[in-house]
Every structure is written in C-alpha cells, then in structure tokens.
Amino acid sequence: MQVWRCDCAREVHLGSGAGGLLLQRSLPECADELLRRFGGQVQTIYLDPPFNTGERFDMKMRVGEADWRSSRARLTLPAYDDRWPSETAYLDMMRGALTLAHGLLREDGTIFLHIDARMHAHLRLMMDEIFGAEHFLNEIIWAYQTGGRALKHFSRKHDIILFYAKSRKYFFNIRAVPVPRAENRSNHMRRCVDADGRTYRTIRSGGREYVYYDDEPAYPGDVWDDVSHLQQKDPQRTGYDTQKPFKLLERIVLCASRPGDLVCDLFCGSGTTLDAAARNGRRFLGVDRSLTAQTVSRKRLLGCKMELEAPPSDVKARVFASMAVGIGFYTVHLDGYEIEPERGNFEGLDAVDQWSAGFLRGDAFHPYANAARSKQRPRLPDALEIPVLSGTPCLETVDVFGRRAYHCFAQQGR
Ligand SMILES: C[S@@+](CC[C@H](N)C(=O)[O-])C[C@H]1O[C@@H](n2cnc3c(N)ncnc32)[C@H](O)[C@@H]1O
After folding, report:
1. Is the pTM higher than 0.90?
2. Less Cβ around it within 10 Å: N or C end of the chain?
3. Residue 414: pLDDT over 50
C-alpha cells in the first residue's frame, strides 16, 4: 500500500479527562493569540518560569531497547536556555508573561508564581503592580532537603511560590487539600478525651480556647515541607531538568479549581501541571517554547483527551510503514525509521520515541492508538490496530529528537 508524507497543523487526541490543549509557543510573542482564544477563561495559573540562573538545562532521554545502563542507550538533549543578555531582558519577558496571565484569568481566578531567591524581590513588586498589592494572598515557602551543602553561606533549601488573586471574589478551597495532623506539632497542647471518646488537643491563647480534634483533618500553612523534591530514582522523573513533583502541583490544582475548570501553565516544561489537572478532572492549557518540553508533555499525557498545536518539524528521516485491512479495523505496521546519518547511529526503531496511528481529517491528525517507549516498557510495539473510520489512514512518528512526521496511506478502494 502506498504511503506518503503529509502535513498536520494539529493533533486531536480522544481519551479520558476533561480535555486540554498543548501549545508550542514562545512568550510574550503568543500573548495576543492566547488572549484572543482564552482571555478571561482560566480559573488558576501556575507559572514555573526560568529563574535567571545563567544555566542551560537538559533532557536526559532513554533510547531504544538496549540495556539502559549502557551509554548507547542514553541521549542528552537541550531542554531550555536560562541565560539572558541582561536582568532587564529577563524582567521584560516576565512582565509580558504576568500581564498575559492577568488577562487570561477569570475574575475569581488565582495565580501561583514559582520562583527562587534570585529574582524574588523584583517579581514580588511586579506582581503587586500587575495584580494589585491588595490581592496578595501568600508567600508559600516550599522547603526541601535536596541539593548540595554550602560552606560560605547557609544552604539554600527553599523555593518561593507567590499566590495572588485577580479580585477579592476569588475561588479557594482549602478543604480539598487536607494533610495528616502532625503529632509532634501538637505536643505543646493539652490532650483531652470528650464524652464520646474522641481525643482532642486544646490550647489557650489571647483569652480564647482553641480545640483540635485528632480525627479532623489539618490543612497546610504557608510553609510546605511535606513535599519532597524528586529524587534521582523517582519513578515520576521524565528526564526533564527542573521537573516539579506531582504532589506539589496537585495541591495547587485541587485548592484553586473545581472539576471542569481551566488550569493553565505558560511554562509547562515536562507537563506536571497538565498531568495534575487531567488526573483531577480539570481542563488544561499548557504552553512552552521548547520542542523537548512538547515531546515530554505529549508522552506524559497520551491517553488523555487533548489537542496539540506546534510548528512543523524539520525531519528528513525515512519512515517505512504498511497497513493490513481487517474486518472493521486496520493494522498499521511501523516497519522502519531511517534517521539522517548525521543524527547518529540508531538500529531498527531505536530512534523512535512515540508513534500513533489514526486518521487525517482536514489539517488535523486524529490518533486512535498510541505507543511510547518507557523505562518500564523499552520495547516499542511495531503494530497498532485502529477501527475503520472516516478520514485518510495516517501514522505519526515522534523521534528521540522530538521531531514529528506524519504519513498517510492510500485508502482501500481508491
Ligand atoms: C522551570 S521549567 C518548567 C518545569 C515544569 N514546571 C515541570 O514540572 O516540568 C521552565 C520552562 O519554561 C520554558 N520557557 C522559557 N522561556 C519561555 C518563553 N519565553 N516562552 C515559553 N516558554 C518558555 C522552558 O522551555 C522550560 O520548559
């Protein structure tokens, strides 16, 4: 069966969840487009922008089926560059992003800006200016144990998350994020048992008596020391430097939005916020300029209802594919992927990280079956079955460099 290269502006994934959109775009250039499409619609925004570290960050990829401890099975790709010509250039980009975020939020919306001590003072003032000092809610300290030990100053063991509302009528539900009551934190209180046998702690302060039942939930304060940074061997790790823990984003998503609400991340990186939103029944809007971020997020969200928009990839690799027709289904075979020699020496399907089979309808690819390589499943299936539906049968490959290519099959009877 004949197969030829085709172009796609969009991917439309069926799947579970409330639905989402993944955009490969750069800020602030995409601000007008985003405001036109989503202005005043977003319930909560989490931003984890570059911190102006002066460093470059990478993505560590696992490649192929070989023993992944061997050097042949690893690839390091650029993720993003956090070097800026000047502090002013960095702050100009941030001003654009924060102004856009303000325009995207609903009137009862909120924003969480994740930063560290480097740019904190500048960004706190910028947030006051754009969101209004009267809409400041918290300066959350995320304290962790990872990282090195300093000898010339105290070791830096926290990030800062600035929490602001768009207006006084904001939505916030702390009851959605209970935490276990810490035994040691109530040691200084008197322990009592009531007539029903329930234990409680009590303390007098400022002429009032405070009572805390042991079986009632506690809620986080503004110091979060119960969420650890991702350890080297953490199964959540995607390989994308600066990835944040799922638990951190889940807490934010749960307290600041309701099921069905739109949750946005304008620097979505490996897609942690989008994953937390999707798994909790929220819609998501994820933006990142990096192709690597787009690839990791796509893989992480496979199986979710989502759309993906990205500029076309420059890929000259040769794709070998075939299709068998069954009763009511097609079996699409990915027979080979011959990458440009200058990209390296890859065997078989080793250069393919993900692939999907589905249908081309207009300018959009609709995948109905997906495969992705993972540490748990290093072997990529070479055949996918899809139902016979309208559109031109099509397959997409996403290679280890994040480049997408689409190939169409001639339909039966044409
Ligand atoms: C700290 S990382 C985000 C990590 C993310 N929270 C996670 O859990 O994986 C910052 C991200 O901002 C993206 N970025 C940097 N400058 C950008 C810009 N001007 N427009 C859009 N994305 C940008 C980078 O590509 C990077 O993925």
Report:
1. yes
2. C
3. no
CA of 83 to the centre of ligand 1 (A): 13
| Residues 116 and 160: beta-carbon distance below 8 Å | yes
Q: Identify the pLDDT of residue 412.
A: 55
Residue pLDDT, tens place only, 111-167: 999 999 999 999 999 999 999 999 999 999 999 988 888 999 999 999 999 999 999
Q: Domain locations in the chain?
A: 26-177+222-288, 180-218, 318-409
User: Which atom of ligand 1 has the smallest separation from the CA of 288?
Assistant: 22
Fold of 26-177+222-288: Rossmann fold (3.40.50)
Predicted local confidence at residue 71, as pLDDT: 65
Strand 199-205 with 208-213, pairing: antiparallel
CA–CA separation, 328 vs 129, rounded Å?
A: 60
Cα(264)–Cα(375) distance, integer angstroms: 29
Residue of 289, 291, 309 with the most ligand 1 atoms within 8 Å of its CB, for mutation: 289
The reply to whether ligand 1 has any atom less than 6 angstroms from the CB of 286 is no
Q: In whole angstroms, give the CA distance from residue 339 to residue 329.
A: 30
Residue-wise pLDDT for 290-329, tens only, equals 999 999 999 999 999 999 999 999 999 999 999 999 999 9
Task: Give the pairing type, strands 105-115 and 42-47.
Answer: parallel
How many angstroms separate the Cα of 110 from the Cα of each of 166, 262, 353?
Answer: 6, 12, 36
The minimum-distance atom of ligand 1 relative to the CA of 272 is: 8
Where does 318-409 sit in CATH, by number?
2.60.40
